[in-house]
## 1
Amino acid sequence: MALIHVENLRKVYRIDQEKVVALNRINLSVESGEICCILGTSGSGKSTLLNIMAGLEKPSKGRVMIDGVDVTALSEKDLALFRQKNVGFVFQSYNLMPTLTAVENVAMPLMFRGMNKEERNREAVKMLRAVSLGERLLHKPTQMSGGQQQRVGIARAFVAHPKIIFADEPTGNLDTKTTKEVMEIMVGMARKHNETLILVTHDKDIARYADRIVTVVDGNVKGDCINQSIVPAAQQSQPEKAALAGGKVS
Ligand SMILES: Nc1ncnc2c1ncn2[C@@H]1O[C@H](COP(=O)(O)OP(=O)(O)O)[C@@H](O)[C@H]1O
Ligand SMILES: [Mg+2]
């Protein structure tokens, strides 16, 4: 059975008399361990879909089942618990706590796992080393580059080994070179731990890191394909790159 089932999901926003159909009717299943990209232009409904899947927002219609639990039916309190236990997030703007060090930021999700401070810090340090930040353990967010902050964000998302990691435009604020580094670290970490990663992006180059690419257009799934070019873009030869650039993603 798939880990995530999205069934007939619909989201309509109302502002005064205006109606915005952010999601029309989405059906989607994601297997455990899959690295699934949701690809679409700005305004296509990607973030709305991710937020509802992650239990951050309620749909207008339909439901999301995660590991047999209907997350769309949970109360706010149960949702908060569900997220703590099952979900990790990587944000475009990192969302680190500015007053906390890298270690303290990464240790945060372990607060709910019944570990003492020493154990939490030990795990956080291990994760920071895994994202090559062993030399920045006591740095605060403002003392780090964007790429370093996002590596802290990745360490924080994976530290508690949640069932699913949701990443919404995780490299949206980074330059090309840093994007490649961050994507390789994030995808490498997901593969190593056989974790499910839902990656939202508008960028086809980033979609190439996923096993599967689901294309969203105007709140509908318009394409769903196994990625034939899982090689990171930068490792491809020039002719290969050119061929892919001309090829259709969906
Ligand atoms: N809180 C909101 N209130 C009203 N409209 C919204 C809200 N959030 C998103 N929308 C609208 O829903 C559509 C999809 O938005 P979003 O999911 O953010 O797209 P994407 O992440 O693909 O750029 C857009 O037209 C957007 O303006
Ligand atoms: Mg978005």
## 2
Amino acid sequence: MTALSMTNSPKISIKGLAKSFGRKVVLDGVDIEVAAGESLVIIGGSGSGKSVLLKCLLGLLKPESGSIEIDGEAMTGADKTTRERLRHKMGMLFQGGALFDSLNIWENVAFALNEGSGRRRTTRAATRKIAIEKLAQVGLGPEIANLFPAQLSGGMQKRVALARAIAPAPEILLFDEPTTGLDPIMADTINNLIVASVQQLGATAVSITHDMASARKIATRIAMLYEGTIIWEGPADRIDDSGNSYLDQFVHGRSDGPIKLQVRAL
Ligand SMILES: Nc1ncnc2c1ncn2[C@@H]1O[C@H](COP(=O)(O)OP(=O)(O)O)[C@@H](O)[C@H]1O
Ligand SMILES: [Mg+2]
């Protein structure tokens, strides 16, 4: 590959991605590219396949067809070593935070640091110090370092999860519903922290959400997932005059429009 094509290749390229569970088709040919340094937010209704898409990207789910490339390198179909190496370029904030109940706060943050470090050995005290620095970046003080997740509020747990995601300084950050379950003020704080963290790392970000306030705050570009494909994508400031009736209905939260709630009798 020439230097020119390297610089031109998108950070993430997803082509024709398909994923089903049994007979249920969730992703039906998703095409999307993310440029380096961009913050893409994928919006879509509950159950539209947003989490499944992120899990495919992270290599946690195996798509039936289609391709995922990171920095021009194929992740789908690659050997385990390549997949692991590409996966270590990514940090993820899981829906619900997904902290380990049995580890204290600094150990939770340090978890991702140790995971990718190979043979590097640092003392427990040194690792704790780094974890505390990462906590400070999301506005948390050292006094919580030895507490356990259950002892923190939902908003603080979310901050810890964010600190864990950014700790290894990943090139790509993935956020799954970062504001779900938070009050509007805490949600805004988390959105601001996400924007600041992504900028500070110079990372490429992909977030998924159904929270439009969050999407507007975080995104440079927005894509909408509906019935297994991306039905609209464009700059974040174009969502109010997109001329797309599906996007329009979602953005304005109207029950009336082309998107019908699928209500099934039991
Ligand atoms: N591991 C799984 N096994 C079976 N079905 C799944 C699995 N993961 C997700 N699904 C189904 O895929 C659809 C999309 O789920 P998801 O991506 O979690 O939606 P959301 O857009 O709300 O994040 C849902 O119908 C869900 O039930
Ligand atoms: Mg989800």
